[in-house]
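Retry 2 of 3 after timeout on previous attempt. Resubmitting structure tokens to design endpoint.
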């Protein structure tokens, strides 16, 4: 991997100027086989309080509720199906927050519990309400502690893991950087547990161009996510200009050392071509209701020329969706092209696919839109 010479300067500049920071801590750092580790909570609170005293606004995205519940209920009751884990989360979440409250109280810091589901951020109105609440808490010098609302979230409304949640929260509050604390020292070019020759990767500059699946075999420890989920979350954040530092949460004084500009962890740089907040919302907060298959010419026009999608380039339609729905756009080989909001219903598209604009009016009558998906309502990304 060829590295530019100025990435360390970029990192130094961003960390020096950072005002609003997301700190994500995973189960592998926060818990032991016996459950929540109070020593880790206390050390984390000590470091975050120190950063808070420097003037940083901190949002803590935390795992650990299920593990804390498992400690109380017994491993057999907290294992297995989703309902068991949700019940364990209900028991553990209050204990998790109590641990944080006690730890931060030593430094006279006020915390707030914020539980989110994907549905809270899917609705634009609820998204803006959540943003206003979070920003008001930060204005009041409160430290929001965010977790997924596992107890009520159904599978299709789950973020999947708190790595994904951290990138969504970064967009929600307009964060400057994400610090993802994990059990690994950072990113390696292979799984170091399986390959002793795996090399440490200090910088990822073009994460959108990497095959993340091939880099990430295996998990980093407890919890639902591994290094793949951390890199996928970092890729999302990079598209809105938010860099991520993946670093070991087990190192002493790691947060203080990071903001003292010590060279730790793997720095994932923001992408040069950034998404607007609205396009990020389209790409990552909404779920596709169907799929539009495009021919090779249309795929080239979309990705190479930035064109809107016309009916003439459509080769197939999958699903039953309405006008205004989010749809996946894929090529003839099934490879992802991107996502976008459709101006036509699925039943209409099946009638007009492959046709020119003049032919469409003969079938559907006058149409307010010539484009099936306008480029302003489209996000092109082969990972979507």
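Retry 2 succeeded. Sequence:
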């Amino acid at each position: 991997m060829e590295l530019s010479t100025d990435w360390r300067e970029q990192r130094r500049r961003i960390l020096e100027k950072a005002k609003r920071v997301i700190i994500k801590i995973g189960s592998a750092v926060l818990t032991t086989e016996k459950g929540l580790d109070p020593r880790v909570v206390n050390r984390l609170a000590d470091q975050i309080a120190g950063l808070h005293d420097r003037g940083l606004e901190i949002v803590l995205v935390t795992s650990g509720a299920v593990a804390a519940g498992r400690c109380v209920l017994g491993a057999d009751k907290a294992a297995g199906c989703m309902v068991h884990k949700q019940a364990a989360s209900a028991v553990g979440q209050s204990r998790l927050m109590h641990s944080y409250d006690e730890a931060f109280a030593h430094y006279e810091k006020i915390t707030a519990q914020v539980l989110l589901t994907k549905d809270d951020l899917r609705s634009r109105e609820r998204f803006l309400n959540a943003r206003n609440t979070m920003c008001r808490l930060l204005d009041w010098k409160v430290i929001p502690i965010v977790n997924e609302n596992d107890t009520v979230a159904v599978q299709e409304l789950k973020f999947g893991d708190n790595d994904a949640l951290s990138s969504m929260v970064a967009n929600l509050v307009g964060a400057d950087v994400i610090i993802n604390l994990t059990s690994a020292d950072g990113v390696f070019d292979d799984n170091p547990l399986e390959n002793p020759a795996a090399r440490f990767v200090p910088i990822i500059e073009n994460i959108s161009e990497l095959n993340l699946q091939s880099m990430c075999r295996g998990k980093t420890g407890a919890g639902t996510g591994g290094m793949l989920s951390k890199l996928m979350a970092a890729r999302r954040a990079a598209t809105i200009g938010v860099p991520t530092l993946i670093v070991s949460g087990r190192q002493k004084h790691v947060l203080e050392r990071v903001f003292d500009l010590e060279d730790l962890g793997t720095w994932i740089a923001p992408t040069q071509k950034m998404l607007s907040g609205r396009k990020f919302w389209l790409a990552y907060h909404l779920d596709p209701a169907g799929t539009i298959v495009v021919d090779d010419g249309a795929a080239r026009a979309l990705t190479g020329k930035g064109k809107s999608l016309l009916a003439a380039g459509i080769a197939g339609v999958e699903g039953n969706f309405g006008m205004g729905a989010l749809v996946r756009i894929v090529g003839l080989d099934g490879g992802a092209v991107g996502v976008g909001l459709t101006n036509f219903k699925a039943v209409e598209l099946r009638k007009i696919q492959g046709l020119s604009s003049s032919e469409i009016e003969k079938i559907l009558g006058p149409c307010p839109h010539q484009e099936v998906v306008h480029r302003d309502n489209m996000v092109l990304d082969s990972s979507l």
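Attempt log closed. The longest strand covers residues 20-25.
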